[in-house]
Amino acid sequence: MSTLLPVGSPELLERLGAHAVRLKALSPTALYGAGQGRQASYSLEVEGLLVDYSRQLIDESVWRELLELGAQANVPAAVRAMYTGVPINHTEQRPALHVALRDRGGGPLQVGDTDVRELVHAERAKLAAFVLAVRGGARRGASGERFTDVVNVGIGGSDLGPVMAVEALKDYAEPGVAVHFVSNIDGTEAVDLIARLNPATTLVLICSKTFTTLETLTNARRMRAWIATAMGEDNVAAHFAAVSTNHPAMDAFGVAADARFTMWDWVGGRYSLWSAVGLAVELAIGTAHFESLLDGANAIDRHFANTEGAANLPLVLALLSVWNGNFLGCHSHAVLPYAQRLHRLPAYLQQLTMESNGKSVARDGQQVSWHTGTVIWGEPGSNGQHSFFELLHQGTHRIAADFLLPYEGPTGELADSILTASNALAQANALARGRTLEQVLADPKVKAAGAAGVAFAPHRVHPGGRPSTVIAFERLDPATLGKLIALYEHRVYVESLLWGINPFDQWGVELGKVQAEALVPVLQAVPTGQGAMRWLHAALQATGLG
Ligand code: F6P
Questions:
Q1: What's the pLDDT score for residue 2?
Q2: How does pLDDT run across 217-261, given as a tens digit for each residue?
Q3: Could you tell me the distance, in angstroms and rounded to a whole number, from the CA of residue 215 to the centre of ligand 1?
Q4: Residues 532 and 472 in one domain
Q5: How many angstroms separate the CA atoms of 216 and 236, rounded?
């Protein structure tokens, strides 16, 4: 990649490049020293999120230049454009107005002839009434029994956000209705649920912005066949609800008029948790908790729009991400929630960040000559410590990490919080400071091992200098989850500004979708009846590259 970034003056980029060379060569001891003052200089508390980025590979002079880069990217104008409905998703000629979905009042927000706020508030009221009817028993299955189970059928943005939030907020779930998810094309989840749920008490929620996604339609048909067999064809509609922009397709599927909810093309799938796509979440946790989730996101939206430079948290996190990726060559980013309830957060953030910023054409249609996107992955700590942390500490890749750390865990015991925090913070420190050969050799156990201790000492060295950020908060409640997600959403947006790309389209995955559908008839034509291996050989040959 020849150019560092499309924004920032050449002089600034050159200075940042020189800083990167200098800092990469600096030992962790020299960079972090005694650590005095770092934590105070490099941390922010915003809306109950305490974000400590003192373990990043930055010093005062780099940070000054990075903030200058942020200033040159003119983020406030881009935020205004987003919040006022400018079609910033230019390749689809659409605004990206997910912030309007968690807007808490204000005057009209006119996009063309439409007052977007009015639409959102009307749909919210409809959703809340539906949730009340299902949870309260006013809306029942065809045999008159109350719904005890809801199955959300969707994929990508119509699945990942709802699953992640339902899992994260289990401690806030209202009793009476259990929520399940079916997404994968292979049918496993559908088969498993069909085997254990009672169709008479099950409500199936088809969640698909387009209502054309192969996986979702296939799974919806699987669920429909099950309901029709058990309850009778005439009773199917009583067991289905749907969320989509595609009203003719909902008609064709037979979704009842009072069980369908809309969203709009100005909401991207991966930004849609706040819309009717969050219905499964609202059914699980109730409307009051869902409103808190929206409140939390809105608090970060206001912070993002009204805060300048070094105090603007999404900007700070995006600058660090670009510093790590484009200057320090650290393109992989681990998300490490020290909260088991957040176990689906890495998967959710994969779509949010990788489907958004995995682009190699700039907004002007030219091929980029700088790196974009970040490889996001992760697992909850402390499980991850006993798995892939070896590579984080001692591997040849320099990988950045986010440690997410609640003060209060599900047990409510301070002792458990202390153990969790000590694990997370010890890892963050070890990644940052590492362990030198001298320190290893000074270890009494290594000394006691004599010649073998000396011979094997290099294996115990940790290079350090692995950047991480700690995001700490009081507890994982709906408002906090809303804040965390909005923070990551806005980080993605600022990254896209620094990379000069459109984070709201997804032409890459569209190609795969179309090609999968085209291969169905090819595979249907492959002869069967001669065993699985024969069929697989023929299938690979028929669909391969020749
Ligand atoms: O995977 C591609 C994608 O278009 C995602 O962007 C989207 O979230 C997902 O498919 C599901 O789409 P839909 O909600 O239209 O079924």
A1: 63
A2: 999 999 999 999 999 999 999 999 999 999 999 999 999 999 999
A3: 10
A4: no
A5: 17
Same domain, 324 and 198: no
CB-defined site of ligand 1, < 6 Å? 154-158, 208-210, 213, 216, 269-270, 355, 506, 509
Amino acid (one-letter) located at 42: Y
Residue that finishes a domain, picked among 259, 290, 321 = 290
Query: Residue with the nearest Cα to atom 13 of ligand 1?
Result: 208
User: Is 1 a domain residue?
Assistant: no
C-alpha dihedral over 233, 237, 243, 248, to 10 degrees? 70
Predicted local confidence at residue 42, as pLDDT: 97
**44-67 average pLDDT score:** 98
How far apart, in Å, are the Cα atoms of 72 and each of 5, 7, 10, 497, 537? 12, 7, 11, 11, 56
- Domain identity same for 347 and 489: yes
Task: Write phi, then psi, for 6 (nearest 5 degrees).
Answer: -85, -10
Using one digit for the tens of pLDDT, what is the confidence trace for 130-162?
999 999 999 999 999 999 999 999 999 999 999
Whether residue 478 is found in the same domain as residue 514: no
Are both 359 and 481 inside the same structural domain? yes
If asked whether residues 47 and 174 sit together in one domain, one would say: no
pLDDT for position 25: 94
Summarize the confidence of residues 379-400 as an average pLDDT: 96
The confidence band for 108, taking pLDDT boundaries of 50, 70 and 90, is confident
Quick check: is 295 in a domain?
no
Inside any domain, residue 178:
yes
CATH at 494: 3.40.50.10490
Residue 327's pLDDT band (cuts 50, 70, 90): very high
**Residues ≥6 apart with Cβ < 8 Å to 401:** 333, 334, 335, 336, 378, 392, 428, 431, 466, 467, 468, 469
Residue 482's CB: how many other CB atoms inside 10 A?
A: 27
Centre of ligand 1 from the C-alpha of residue 77, in Å: 29
Go through the chain and tell me how many residues it has: 546
Last-in-domain residue among 230, 265, 290: 290
Looking at the fold, whether 185 and 134 belong to one and the same domain comes out as yes
Enclosing domain of residue 238: 98-290
Distances (CA, A) of 470 to 44, 105, 311, 327: 11, 32, 16, 21
Average pLDDT over residues 5-25: 96
Q: Is residue 381 part of a domain?
A: yes
Q: Are residues 275 and 333 in the same domain?
A: no
Pocket mutation for ligand 1, best pick of 158, 216, 492 (most atoms within 8 Å of C-beta) = 158
Task: Please choose from 509, 510, 515 the residue to mutate so as to test ligand 1's pocket, defined by most ligand atoms within 8 A of CB.
Answer: 509
For tokens 């439409």, the residue is 114
Provide the domain count of the chain: 3
Catalytic residues: 355, 386, 513
242 C-alpha to ligand 1 centroid (Å): 15
